[in-house]
């Protein structure tokens, strides 16, 4: 791919991601706070603030603010690390997991409806192939 094609693809993927996020239901917290919860969920339900900041490309102060809000809404819990009492582990609560599930369902429902309405069967097969290619690109070292 040439430079302009790569730039166009990057913009298309970013616009696609923004649209899905806009279609997701947020409930009692912002999209950013929901993304923090989703990152904890993806990490197996437990993470550290430093890991979250790295995974989300967010500043540690923004992550800390989000964690305070999420803890106040009982969507996560903070505990001392069992091996190193100076470190903190954050764990998602069942209410937090449910919020993440609702958030994902909103975006996925919109995506499913839109794909069915806009794309032919052949285009849907091509989109599945494109998804596989994106997975390969994403996991390439």
From TrEMBL:
SUPFAM superfamilies: Winged helix' DNA-binding domain. Residues 2-136 form the HTH marR-type domain. Pfam families: MarR_2. It comes from the Bacteria. This is MarR family transcriptional regulator. It comes from Gryllotalpicola kribbensis.
């Amino acid at each position: 791919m040439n430079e302009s094609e790569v730039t166009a693809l990057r913009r298309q993927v970013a616009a696609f991601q923004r649209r899905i996020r806009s279609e997701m239901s947020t409930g009692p917290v912002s999209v950013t706070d929901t993304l923090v919860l989703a990152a904890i969920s993806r990490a197996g339900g437990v993470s550290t603030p430093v890991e979250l900041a790295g995974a989300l490309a967010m500043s540690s102060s923004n992550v800390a603010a989000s964690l305070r809000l999420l803890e106040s809404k009982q969507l996560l819990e903070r505990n001392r690390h069992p091996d190193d009492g100076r470190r903190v582990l954050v764990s998602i609560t069942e209410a937090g997991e449910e919020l993440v599930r609702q958030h994902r369902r909103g975006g996925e429902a919109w995506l499913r409806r839109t794909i069915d309405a806009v794309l032919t069967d052949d285009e849907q097969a091509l989109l599945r192939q494109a998804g596989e290619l994106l997975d390969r690109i994403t996991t390439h070292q």
